[in-house]
Fold each of these.
Amino acid sequence: MQFDERQFRKFLSEQDISDLLDDIAAAINKDFGMNDKVLLVGVLKGAIVVTADLVRRLHSDVDVDFVRCTAHGKSLSGSGTISILRDISVDVRNRHVIIVEEIIDSGRTLKFLYDRIKSANPLSLKIATLLDKSSKRVVKIDADYVGKVVDDQFLIGYGLDLEERCRNLPEVYALKYPN
């Protein structure tokens, strides 16, 4: 493995993750029919894994694109600058758009992205996330499709990184805190 397993404990197994994605996909499939044009917008880098596994579970006419944002000057008040490093490359009009995240915590970047996409007039705009740290939210934004609400803890694997490493782990691990 690419990390010291003595410092981490398994948080979600591959089966747990698969079950959560099945639940998210079932909810999306209930909301959108086979003739609906759905655009998944994965937020890079972490959501690439979730997006890839989610898209295969959907029954609609699905397209995929990615966006990459970065936040500078983060603070609890929500001030700071958010920059787009890679923008969406398709027109969102006449499409149902679902922003896909691997995890939502403060919500600052997601709220910026949500408002930006909403201003482009999609048919609908929703948010899907595998994990939701709703207790860490500093701005008002809620996901429409949530795999699991989690406590405030440091997680790696399945798209979640440790200094740009460990995204490729097939399971999610949590940092063990000293007793």
Amino acid sequence: YMKAWDKNIPESLAEGILDDVTYDWLSVVEGIMESGGDVVVVTEDYIKEAYKISRKSGYNVSATGTAGLAGLMKLMKEKKITEGEKIGLLFTGIDRRKNIRKDLSQNVVTLNSKDLIDKIL
């Protein structure tokens, strides 16, 4: 059972993470368990820094969309990412409040069912 915030609702620059509807929590938890993944909890400082770095790099991504980078930054600081390890990082959610455009097509690799995972490595 997952219950949405009803009081003491936290605030974050990455407001989209603070869902007030819990429709997808079970699928998220199942995905974490099936993949052997984990949850990374970061401070607001990590969120702000990831957003700042992303925007400075020209990506029109929302603070919520940079949360993965915030998690990666924390894992790197804690030395939980080994040198040479390959990482998949998604920037999701455009920042509709800003008007920055960058062609991301060169950064996206599309796989189909016949492609080997080696295509992205």
